[in-house]
Amino acid sequence: MKPKPISTTLLSGLIMVAVVCAGGLFGSSVRADDGGPRLSRTVFLSGLSGPWDLAFAPDGTMFYTEKCKGLSVRKTDGTIRHLFGAPGAALPAGDFFCQGQSGMLGVALDPEFSKNRFIYVYMASNLESRKTNRVLRLTVAKNFATVGDRKDIVADIPFKASFNRWGGAGAHSGGRIRFSPADGYLYVATGDNHDGPLPQDLKRLGGKVLRIDREGKPGKGNIDKPGADARIFTYGHRNVQGIAFQPGTGRVFVCEHGPGHSDEVTGLAPGGNAGWDPAPIKGVSCASAYCGYTSNRPDGRPTSMTDLERFPDALPPSWTNRGASEGMGPCEFLSGPQWRSLSGRLAVGFLRGARIELLTLDERGMAAKAAVVGDLPRQRIRSLVIGPDGALYVAIDAGEIWRLQNTGE
Ligand SMILES: [Ca+2]
């Protein structure tokens, strides 16, 4: 999210999605009402440093990442142990570093964790002279005190190595990782690194959603295009921060930062192009050859998050925040009887927007309604995860993890 859009003032939590979209291309833009549901909130953990993501074992043991510290675990008796990453961890990683938006980001547990004890993290690594983002698999000891057997299952996700006109090193790294309960594959969100051609480049892994097995091998039914890296599920993304699987359908939705004019929620389909192409079109020049904050086209219109003129088959967004980009972050479906009438809604967190919205999707996967969760402190929302107890756990940049429940309706 850089540079900052002009007026960013939010009035009483209203989203400024405003514009009714021309041609009906984005019929999914809906304005949130701010009289949305109120959830009960307790602070589950505090005193953390930049918590980025969390994942639960079936018994309630919680693993969490902190961007510059690494991976830690909170056992069900409340004890905490720093497992992996920075010095002081049970297993330090000499190649781990944090810079800009990068560091120890997503975490996911293997669907068969109880049997294989596998955990996965997404982290920045300087193991090779060219820094990359990696997906690592580790094995957790029975007593949760240590991890070992590191295996780097994806080692070649691009990393923005140096500052340019558009921001510092480590920008736009994506970083969310989630296993699909429907197909058992690991989905990996990557970012465009402020690199113009990267999202539409099918040989490189930035600006993509990858879909792989637990060894890092391509999933069956991924992209089917000549020369494409077979680990790619969808391409043409800017900086996906949230991955969520719809209960009942198993369909995957991603939540993505916009460049100052629109964040997006998008339902994915194999091989789909999400329509982001910040490379200059012929006759246009952009600083550092990246048009993501300006225009990639001769007529000067802002580079579109979903360019349906140039990519008519692009994946249409389910929801778009066309008034401003507010740093859309994580997303997660609410599911289960404890959510009552809210079950099935997609919870979406915002960083700069500092709120959680609940989207109601129609049968096509398009947002039909949106509501802001009421009475929450205004904090940058970094991660949303449903725990084994059915509650929604929320990591905020200010160093806390909350537990939200529906006790109101
Ligand atoms: Ca898009």
Describe this structure in words.
The chain is an all-beta fold and 409 residues long. The chain is built from one helix and 25 strands. The chain has a five-stranded mixed β-sheet with strand order 2-3-4-5-6, with no helix packed on it. Strands 1-25-24-23 form a four-stranded antiparallel β-sheet, with no helix packed on it. Strands 7-8-9-10 form a four-stranded antiparallel β-sheet, with no helix packed on it. A hairpin with a 6-residue loop joins strand 16 and strand 17 (263-267). The radius of gyration is 20 Å and the shape is globular. Calcium ion binds at residues 264, 266, 274-276, 305-306, 317.
At CATH level 2, the architecture of the domain at 49-324 is 6 Propeller
Proportion of beta-strand residues = 25-35%
User: Which structural class matches the secondary elements?
Assistant: mainly beta
Unique ligands: calcium ion
Number of helices: 1
Please bin the fraction of helical residues: under 10%
- For the termini, the CA-CA separation is 36 Å
Largest beta-sheet details: 5 strands, mixed
